[in-house]
Amino acid sequence: xxxxxxxxxxxxxxxxxxxxxxxxxxxxxxxxxxxxxxxxxxxxxxxxxxxxxxxxxxxxxxxxxxxxxxxxxxxxxxxxxxxxxxxxxxxxxxxxxxxxxxxxxxxxxxxxxxxxxxxxxxxxxxxxxxxxxxxxxxxxxxxxxxxxxxxxxxxxxxxxxxxxxxxxxxxxxxxxxxxxxxxxxxxxxxxxxxxxxxx
Length: 199
Fold this sequence. Notes:
This protein is mainly α and 199 residues long. It is built from nine helices and no strands. It folds into two domains: 3-89, no CATH class; 123-193. The mean pLDDT is 75. Keywords: Membrane, Transmembrane, Transmembrane helix.
């Protein structure tokens, strides 16, 4: 649920003064609604705190009167933009941390496979998993085709879900084996362009 949908509920606003203060912020500066993504409830709390700090009141009507002052409106817009920017940076930091961990894990696994090859051994477990995924994909498709299973039924939907999951694992194995994909290239680009974590 986005911010405008959440604050469009008059009953919720009447029952919750925090929502009322956030609604005042959106009424005074409507374009700030576009700054916030899916975490509307967190945004409501931040907007309410900002309105309360700027106007010095918990009463939505008094806050609206206070925000007739253009200087306070400027402060409200600036603080909302700062909050939205901080949220995006935090999300980017989490994404970069996750991607970095994934890349390191993949590199470590490749290094392990290289050691297996040097020792004249193969990675039997990985090969068995890959063959199992391939057989699962072929088996699931075959079962649907030759068993005349409708994809719109519960059984058909379940088979499609399993085949899709296995196909994703198969694609991941190919990306691992052949040095990545376009997504990996985008990951490297993102990591190169992103500011250092914690800065």
